[in-house]
Prior knowledge:
Layout: E1 4-7, H1 31-45, E2 57-60, E3 68-71, H2 73-78, E4 84-85, E5 107-113, E6 119-120, E7 123-124, E8 127-131, E9 141-145, H3 157-169, E10 175-180, E11 193-197, E12 209-213, E13 218-221, E14 228-232, H4 237-253, E15 257-265, E16 279-287, E17 292-293, H5 303-307, E18 309-312, H6 315-320, H7 323-331, H8 337-352
Parallel strand pairs: 1-5, 3-18
Antiparallel strand pairs: 2-3, 4-17, 5-8, 6-7, 8-9, 9-11, 10-11, 10-15, 12-13, 13-14, 14-16, 15-16
Amino acid sequence: MPVQFVYGKQDFVQDVPCNTDSISRKAYESRFDSAIRAGWTDRMARGLFRYHLGDLQTRILPGPCGYVAQLNVKRGLERRKPQEILSIRQDFNAEQFHFNKVSPDEIIFEMKDSEEGHEIGHHPRKTVVLVNVSPLEFGHCLFVPDPARCFPQVLTRFAIQVGMESVLLSSDPSFRVGFNSLGAFASVNHLHLHGYYLKHKLNIESTPVRPLLPEKGFYTLAGFPAGFLFYTESKGAEDVAGAVCHVTDFLMEANVAHNLFMTRGCPPCEEDDKLLRKGVRIAVWPRVACFGTKEESAFNVALCELAGHLPFKNKKDFELTTESRVIETIQRYLLPRADFLQLEKQLTQHLMLL
Length: 354
């Protein structure tokens, strides 16, 4: 029987310091952080991962984007082969790998909200949190909502809310959560989100935004890469999760692949202190779809790369890449500007009617 992690709104952490490159992982530790770190470290010590992950070689690329590049050769060589993805609406296939097939030892705990709002009929919702056996950083785990229901890799309101609440449960500003849709370099077609600690500051935590529907927490990113941003503190999290889901549902209906990234960040208003980390920033990037089997040795643009975290699988690219080269690569995966602006208009109108 997996360990149960039961939480409520009283466990959400309100005041979190700004992330810094010198942050200690032990400096900030909520009950949630303690459970993730202890469980993850225990599984690493027991040899349940495909490779040992030590401190990764890291460099901050010169330039205003502040890209955080990391060298992780073993992830490119030793991780499970990604599934072939042919559509962003691909059905769940029980014959392929899915998370109900993992060893029970890989499960850190099951998350359950103590409040009744997370129940469907007589079946309380749960989220299984398990280690990613091919980690890209410390604490890399997977959040799998209601795994027995075998959802395909399509965001639900519950999954979005679990991701947001996980960030709010952490007292460490370096804890991040993300999602890759099918066609946006998801490797497994079974609903899941990634969570991990990255102790380096990312621009997405404080990058300027332009308001679209601020009353719904909806903004557009003012800089590169073009995308949408939601912001919420713990009080409005449920409503914002619903708004985010309306956006991702709209993208699914329009057959647009997308990546999502959640992190502690400052409020979107310019007059607010850029060092504040009371709430969660949720970035959604619509992008050009990529189908087939992901090439693991390549620089694949997914949730990490769009957020400014660049995992490299070979030393040459890690050492020689530049900010301009990264921007050029990422740009190829983004929607054309005219298409993005049209989508921005459609989404704003869509949310206004809700």
